[in-house]
Amino acid sequence: MRILFIGDIVGKPGREAVKRFLKPLQAEYKVDITIANAENAAAGKGLTKDVAEELYKYGIQFLTMGNHVWDQREIMNFIDHEPRLVRPANYPVGAPGQGHGFIRAMGRKIGVLNLSGRIFLPPLEDPFSGAIRWINQIKQETPIIIIDFHAEATSEKVALGWFLDGKVSAVVGTHTHIQTADARVLPQGTAYITDVGMTGPRDSVLGVKKEIIINRFLTQLPAKFELASGPVQINALILDIDEESGKTSKIETIQRFAEA
Asked: Does residue 259 surpass a pLDDT of 90?
């Protein structure tokens, strides 16, 4: 089974990149399932129903979220009824939505688990001990488990990857918007990368106009963030997974760029 995972989609430029690159990538790599992180997909923060439907129309089958999950308040109206969308599982009991879900390909179920880190992010439930509980639930239905670990600290991400080696098919990091160079398959068959990267405006600072962020560093004054324009990029990765064992044999990173 071959899974395409797309890094954080940022606003309209990110959606335009998905529209431009996704179908050719799916054909080139003979992709069976496409998953994407969409926590920044609506105007750079959060997700609306219309934006979710737009991404599904382009060919994404499943969406994960992160710390901006509640930034568009309308998500409260549909997240409970959308099986193709998960938010971090370690939010407190009673939060809307689900922390894990399933999608089918090649007659098999794929489990997708979303987790949030706790370093420099809201202090949610422990993702390490929580992951074991949720993985045990998912394994009752499938050995193929993809974890989107939405976290800031590289140490926390790497530690979770080693902690879950052999227990899941992949631990892929999101949130920091910079694709890292450490993609590998760990010794017991779990694919790992610290961050998949960003899908959005290339000439930016994590998707925001670079002049705004540079001036903020120079002056230490608050500023309203605005999404950058210009050339767009897609950052993603390919996972080759054995359907029977759930182990990953190969992970490959993808970067594509184009003028807006």
From this structure: no
